[in-house]
Amino acid sequence: MTATTSRIYEKKFLAVWATPIPDRVKALFTEIFINVSELVKYVSKDITKTDTFHLVIPLNCLMDLLNDPIYKFPQVVHIDVIYDGIYDLKKIQRRFNFEPEKIKFHTINELLRQLEKVELDRTLVSSGPIDRSTIDAIISIIEDRVRAKQQATFNRLSSFLKQCAFTSLHGLPAKNINDIAPYFICSSCKFIYLQLYQLECGHQQCKVCVNIRKSCTICFKAVLRDKVLLVRNSQMKMQNLSIYCSNCEWTGSLKDYQRHFKHDHYKLITGFIDNQEINENISSLNSDVSVMSLNGICIWEIPDITDMRNNSASDEQKSIYSSSFYSFSNGYRICLRLFLNGDAKAKGTHMSLFFVLMQGNYDDVLRWPFEFKITFTLLNHLSPNNNQSKFFWPDTKSIAFQCPISNMNIAYGFSKFFPLDLFEQNENHYVKDDRILIQVEIDVLAERPTLPLISGAGELVNEEELVDTTYDNLPRLLCSSDI
After folding, report:
1. How far apart are CA 99 and CA 476, in angstroms?
2. Helix runs in 17-107, H state only
3. Lowest pLDDT segment from 72-81, 113-122, 467-476
4. Are 375 and 441 a contacting pair, CB within 8 Å?
5. Is there a contact between 18 and 34 (Cβ–Cβ < 8 Å)?
6. DSSP characters over 230-294
7. Are 329 and 363 spatial neighbours (Cβ–Cβ below 8 Å)?
8. How much is the pTM?
9. pLDDT tens-digit map of 338-347
């Protein structure tokens, strides 16, 4: 295939992609290779037979490509390098030293836009209609890549996820939800619940939604907690329901479905969150949120701990953010912020960990201020019974727990979450494959204590001193760095 760009006519459009690609997407490329060595052979053979090459490779193939002289040839005019996150990109700062003129870095979503442009250019050249099915196929390969990466992560961390899955489960999705009588289903989150509560208006919600929502989703009347009544015998009636699993072909009673869901679909119960790129220009996290927990528990996997700790110690990167996530279906949007070398109050002595409320899609119908118990846990790979946990109850007078009026509220949490000397002494307990796991649990059913507890938690202070180093042109800096 051929495609035009704004400046030159691309003769060969080549890609390295290890996973299968739909035929419609293959049509966008001249050739697709399963590894970079095959691509190098192809370019070396055809270097005198064509005008130009445009290469698309994953980040893990970059070193192999740079070890071969073909990338310096003038016929190779563009090299797009695909990376999954800003932390992957930052890692190569210490590994490569090359001229950046023809190399550009893209996330997987940016690759989508690149391929859409190729398809559009092809259409303009041929004067034919834009093929929507091709665009859908492009989206599908990105989704497949994301799913494969998530599955690999879940497989690696299955023991922790199973451990979390056997905590309380607040709601269950079902494939035959439309065939089940409405009085078995929460009108707010649309999940099946063992216990439903009747509101003053006569409609029913589960206990989670009673606690987090300020109004009924049907008639929009205010939810008064002191006038909510448990629907008696609902548990007995629901046990006789026949449920079709929403994720496989299993069918059975509600009681058996709970066991099936926890055993076979534990990875869907606990939300799994990763690191998030921060756009310093707009001071916001990516607004695309797909992570949601069914039990109020999420696990944050933080990779490349060695590099990140070195960066933190040198003040190159003071803090990192988690991706944003929803605590429950139709619930609060949240992210976490971690200082591996401590914030201003605990620098060099403790890890500092903070909870951040963000603007979400359901803020108008949620109860404010946020008032629910929050527990942070540093997971122990060798001995799960020795996980390190700290919890706090929100200070409902703090601006950190009011309805967000900007993208992110003030962070609130522990400056002294975990001692660095203890972490270093027991590093093999908490670090595995250069990764650590931090769990956050939002317990909306716990009863708030009458007397305030001294937890050591508070607002993040001296925010001006805690801004990470920013770069006007990160790819150029990475390409020219001599570190």
Report:
1. 8
2. 23-26, 36-46, 62-66, 86-91
3. 467-476
4. yes
5. yes
6. E-TTHHHHHTT-EEEBSSSS-EEEHHHHHHHHHHH-HHHHSEEE-B--EETTTTEE-S----B-S
7. no
8. 0.72
9. 999 999 889 9
Q: Write down the pLDDT at residue 342.
A: 92
Gap between the Cα atoms of 301 and 308, Å rounded: 13
Rounded Cα–Cα distance for residues 358 and 400 (Å) = 10
Distance CA 168, CA 174 (A): 18
| The one-letter amino acid at 48 | T
Terminal CA-to-CA distance of the chain, rounded, Å? Answer: 40
- Please compute Rg for the chain using Cα positions: 26
CB-CB contact of 311 with 304 (8 Å): no
Q: Per-residue confidence at 290, pLDDT binned at 50, 70, 90? A: low
Q: d(Cα 449, Cα 389) in Å, to the nearest integer? A: 19
Q: What is the pLDDT of residue 177?
A: 86
Mean pLDDT of 409-429: 95
Q: What CATH code is assigned to 270-466?
A: 2.60.210.10
Measured distance CA(32)–CA(29) in Å, rounded = 7
Burial zone of 59 (CB within 10 Å; 0-12 exposed, 13-18 middle, 19+ buried): middle
Q: Are strands 457-459 and 297-302 parallel, antiparallel or unpaired?
A: unpaired
Whether 369 shows a pLDDT value over 60: the answer reads: yes
- φ, ψ for residue 246 (rounded to 5)? -75, -10
pLDDT at 359: 93
pLDDT in tens, 455-467: 889 888 765 555 5
Helices 108-126, 132-156: inter-axial angle, 10-degree rounding: 160
Q: How confident is the model at residue 142 (pLDDT cuts 50, 70, 90)?
A: low
Which tokens is 140 given? 């599908």
As separate numbers, helices (DSSP H) first and strands (DSSP E) second, the chain gives 15, 25
More confident site: 33 or 128? 33
Class of domain 177-265: alpha beta
Instruction: Give the closest residue to 157 by CA, choosing from 270, 6, 292, 244.
Output: 270
Amino acid identity for residue 205 in this structure: Q
Burial (0-12, 13-18, 19+ Cβ within 10 Å), 330: buried
Gap between the Cα atoms of 85 and 277, Å rounded: 7
Q: State yes or no: cis peptide before 369, omega within 30 of 0.
A: yes
Domain ranges for the chain, please list them: 3-156, 177-265, 270-466
Token pair 């139709």 is at which residue? 330
> In CATH terms, are 177-265 and 270-466 the same topology?
no
Amino acid at site 372 = F
Contact 411, 354 (CB under 8 A): yes
Collapsing DSSP states into helix, strand and coil, what is residue 142? Answer: helix
Beta bridge partner(s), residue 440: 298, 376
